[in-house]
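Minutes, project huddle
Topic: does the predicted pose make sense with zinc ion bound?
PN asked that the exact inputs be recorded in the minutes so nobody has to dig through chat later. Recorded below.
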Amino acid sequence: MVVAEEYMKAAVYEGPYKLAIREVKKPVPGKGDVLIKTKAVGICGSDLEIFDGRFPQAIPPLIIGHEGGGIVEAVGPEITRVKPGDRVIAECLLYCGECHNCRIGRYNLCADHKVVGMIGHHGEYADYFVVPEKNVHILPHNVSWPEAALIDTLAGPVWGIEKGNIQVGSTVAVYGAGPAGLFFCKLAKLRGAQKVYLVGTRDNRLAFGEQYGADVILNTKKDKVEEFILQDTQGNGVDVVIEAAGAASAFNSGLEVLKKGGELLLYGVLGGGASPINVQPIQMNELVIKGLNASPLRYPRTIELVSSGMISVKELISHTFRLEDLPELFSSGFIGKREDNYMKGVVLFD
Ligand SMILES: [Zn+2]
Ligand SMILES: [Zn+2]
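Predicted holo structure (tokens), as shared on screen:
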């Protein structure tokens, strides 16, 4: 039987600073795969890194986009859990399921991983995309499509906060007032932190701090951050620092405000090679640094947090776009420069 090939629109990364809307073949789900009709995809800082050529693992031509979901359109052989018509969100990390780390549930450390829209697998800035069934999670009906596009952004902090040693009454300093930093503030409070300091560089972003549970808001451009936090903690420093800014300066400031024996959670991506880190306090003060990568097994719980209303995500959606907007949006630097009070953008589909 000859089946006529179907085509769809997609945003294709064709090399550094080249993103184009192209007509490409609509993917066909293989064994264990699900074909999804895209409804919403969150725009991520990693997309910009790919666009700028700073993420060499993304090999063009590649459809990018990795924070989205949609409606199951068709399923391949051996699918048991989902069916056409289901509303789903897709986890972007593709793991082998067989290596040691996968078998102990740490599939974010899979020895043989790919990432949808980033490494070795076409992404979601397209009318349709394909992922393995094990990567899809059913969305409750009260979670809207734009909200669904922020689940990945929340899932990382949900995983991170559980890895941190935050006790009832702890003090926490969160660096970075983007969506992840704000979610970390909220989660730290839910975990019982007595006082959360939010440190950032942009007032419009810091303004969300109160709503997300920050007790003290500090702007590095105006406030003496280290001095303030040390004084406010009687010279001891905070129990836990969370670096969600992706800047060496934030990391180093975090080391200064961390109490002896304290813990720093490294969530922000310090890309572009080695970073100038002040190593000595780590040794002198026996500081503990924990890296955080992705959100293994945390999607179901994250979906519940949004569905139950325990954590609200929609306030952080500052902009919505159409697929066709992406090339101009990326090449103009609109997102990188955080123009027009940009916080988080979501690409919506019909
Ligand atoms: Zn992302
Ligand atoms: Zn594996």
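Observations noted during the meeting:
- The chain has two domains: 7-150+313-348, 155-291.
- The two ends are 31 Å apart (CA to CA).
No decisions taken; revisit at the next huddle.
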